[in-house]
Design goal:
Helix 3 (about 60-75) runs parallel beside helix 8 (about 245-270) and helix 7 (about 140-155) crosses helix 8 (about 245-270). The protein has helices spanning about 20-35, 45-50, 60-75, 85-90, 100-110, 115, 140-155, 245-270, 295, and strands at about 5-10, 55, 120, 125, 160-165, 165-170, 180-185, 195-200, 200-210, 215, 220, 225, 230, 240-245, 275-280, 285-290, 300-305. The chain has about 300 residues and is an alpha+beta fold. The chain has 9 helices and 17 strands. The chain has a 7-stranded antiparallel sheet. The chain has a 3-stranded antiparallel sheet with strand order 2-4-3. Strands 7-8-17 form a 3-stranded mixed sheet, with no helix packed on it. It starts with a strand and ends with a strand. It has a domain at about 170-305: T-fold.
């Protein structure tokens, strides 16, 4: 996934973390082998290469993530779309550099809702029309969830895990306090906290325009794609942070709210009862924030999902 994973937990001095580290590495490598668009032999890329109409057997984890992606795609009115692989690749957010001809083709393409194109039956999936799937807006979050489950399977019930800033908290710290997470200022030149969260049995993910970007014809464009245009977002919040039960859900909804934009995004978050923090740039370089849900709108800094 081109990212680092991390895990923090407390243990007695004689504890050997080597087996835990090995199990965690195995967990994230399994997600990468299944869902990477950078590995030509990943399960996802094999599904992408399959002819239209051909049933393809898929592993349970890939099916689970695709199902969740389709569900959030439907609930967001198509603003989260796992069928934008052609656009993501064309703009240079895959293994290859940006390609002007591919960008024009992606922007001209007639698009249907991905849940109308995929048919799922038990452990198999088939495409009813050409589509190139991309799970980069949800797979890192799912990977963090897998790290959390790996800890729990090893009997570790208090931990903080993450992949590239998508974080999942298990239980509390040994002192009973929540795990402290910083929401970054949307500044590409430095890392500084905007606000602080304390998480217990919850996950947080942020989508923004200030970390992952490429330069196309002298213009910096962010990695988030607009499903309606097949192009990078032209107007969006600087960042959107979502707190949810699972990191996969938080990851996907943060992307959907970025696409929705500063005008429609807050309403979409309220309709879906999300806990979300929007940070918008203002003229002159300052930022303003808008919180949706009890966690952010009332200034509460602790999140706990039972």
């Amino acid at each position: 996934m081109g990212a680092r994973w991390s895990a923090l937990f407390f243990a007695p001095p004689e504890f050997d973390p080597t087996p835990v580290r090995s199990a965690l590495q195995t967990a994230v490598e399994a997600v990468d082998r299944s869902m990477s668009t950078w590995k030509s032999d990943s399960d996802l890329m094999c599904l992408n290469r399959a002819p239209v109409g051909e049933w393809v057997s898929v592993a349970a984890d890939l099916r689970q993530v695709i199902e969740l992606g389709l569900k959030i795609g439907h609930e967001s009115g198509g603003l989260f779309d796992i069928g934008l692989g052609d656009a993501v690749g064309a703009w240079g957010f895959g293994p290859a550099a940006a390609d002007t001809h591919a960008i024009k083709a992606a922007m001209r393409a007639r698009r249907r809702a991905t849940d109308e194109i995929l048919e799922l039956h038990e452990g198999r999936i088939r495409k009813l029309a050409p589509v190139r799937l991309d799970l980069n807006g949800i797979a890192k979050g799912y990977g963090a969830d897998r790290l959390a489950k790996t800890h729990q399977a090893l009997g570790i019930c208090q931990a903080l895990v993450g992949i590239d800033g998508e974080m999942r908290a298990i239980g509390t710290r040994p002192d009973g306090e929540g795990w402290t997470i910083a929401v970054e200022q949307p500044d590409p030149d430095r890392r500084a906290p905007h606000s602080i969260l304390a998480l217990q049995d919850a996950a947080v993910a942020t989508s923004g325009d200030y970390r992952h970007w490429v330069e196309v014809q002298g213009r910096r464009v962010s990695h988030t794609m607009n499903p309606q245009t097949g192009a990078s977002l032209l107007s969006s919040p600087a960042s959107v942070t979502v707190v949810a039960r699972t990191c996969a859900e938080a990851d996907a909804w943060a992307t959907a709210l970025m696409v929705a934009g500063p005008e429609a995004g807050p309403g979409l978050a309220m309709r879906n009862r999300l806990q979300a923090l929007f940070i918008m740039r203002q003229p002159g370089g300052s930022c303003r924030s808008l919180g949706i849900g009890q966690l952010f709108s009332e200034g509460v800094s602790a999140a706990h999902f039972c």
